[in-house]
Every structure is written in structure tokens, then in C-alpha cells.
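Job type: complex structure
Entries:
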Amino acid sequence: DVKVTQSSRYLVKRTGEKVFLECVQDMDHENMFWYRQDPGLGLRLIYFSYDVKMKEKGDIPEGYSVSREKKERFSLILESASTNQTSMYLCASSSRRGRYYEQFFGPGTRLTVL
Amino acid sequence: SQQGEEDPQALSIQEGENATMNCSYKTSINNLQWYRQNSGRGLVHLILIRSNEREKHSGRLRVTLDTSKKSSSLLITASRAADTASYFCATATSGTYKYIFGTGTRLKVLA
């Protein structure tokens, strides 16, 4: 059974803290993605990675960075958390084999920044 | 910016009825996908339709695609309480691995 796991379901941090969100997939997928989901705004792409050590900015990269040192792991980093980063964070992965790429999602991390 | 916009934003129906939700997008696409999200969980892929296809079926799901109108619809027939969820369309253009998700339709099926 294919799987994308995220390190925490719920996380509470204080303003100014450095926050790490981890995502691991076991499907040998090349592509990995980080989204944030807010009510009324749907899913917005923060960053994605199409290979180890490769990354590309999405629509809202400000205040975030990412790391992909191994193929199966993609980390999202909030350098200095702020209250407007309180959100649901979703990780996804997809294969590059074939022409059409279904995305597989993790369960999400609900982050609250106080 | 969001490419996909779902309509309606929310839908409430009785069990056994059909549910139809629509998605509009702005640019040429390679394919369009529909996903379901149960409350507070990750998204699950439902169905993919390619840009050269007009209709596709999977179980109780029927998806149509009209590239001239840049729109798609998802029909769920004989709905069940377990279909209660949010539904999102996602579009991809050729030459990119990125998908753009819409804002979603919240479906509530009453038993």
C-alpha cells in the first residue's frame, strides 16, 4: 500500500521559532510537493522538488524554505514562524514515469503559531 | 493564483440523489483530475481525464471535460453519506509537473 507520511498531525509553535515539517514517501517518486490549505483559498503550492537536491518555488514561497537530501524525504522549513503561517500543510508526491501524474497526499499537519 | 474554481462552494443533498459539481479553469491543460478530501485529512485521487477525452466513468463517478469552455464537471450518482467530503479539481499544463488546485466544493450527503 502506497504511503506518504508526515511527521506530525498537529503542531503548536511560538512566533519566531524555527519549524521543520517532514514528509516521507515510500513509492520511489521523483516529484514531491508542499502545499498549504486555508479556508476559501484551496490548496496553494509552496515549493516542489523534481529530484534530489532540486527545488522550485511555487506560488507562495515567501517565509519558507525546503530541503531534499534523499529521494524519499522532503522537508519544509519555516525559518521564523509567524502567526500568518498558521495553516494546514499538505505534502504530496508523484511519479514522473508516463505522461500523467496522479498526486498522492499525506494526512496533513495542522500548524498553529501563537 | 488559483486556476481552478469549483462551483458550487457548498452542496447539500439527500442520500440516493445525484451530486454535480463544476470546475472552470483559465489556461490550456494537459489533463484534469478530481480529488476528494475527508474532513481534516489529506486528498485522495478520484479520477483523471486527459485533454483529448470528453467523458470518463469510474464506478459511480462520471467526469466530463469541455476544453472549448475550459470547464469540467464531476457527477456522483446515487450518493451515500460516506460521500460527504470536499471535492477539488486540479489542472496541469504540458511540460510541468505542477498541478493547480481549485478552492473546492463541500458536499454534504444527508442520511
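Summary: The mean pLDDT of chain A is 93. The interface with chain B takes residues 4, 31, 33, 35, 40-45, 48, 50, 58-59, 88, 90, 92, 94, 96, 99-108, 110 of chain A (CB under 8 Å).
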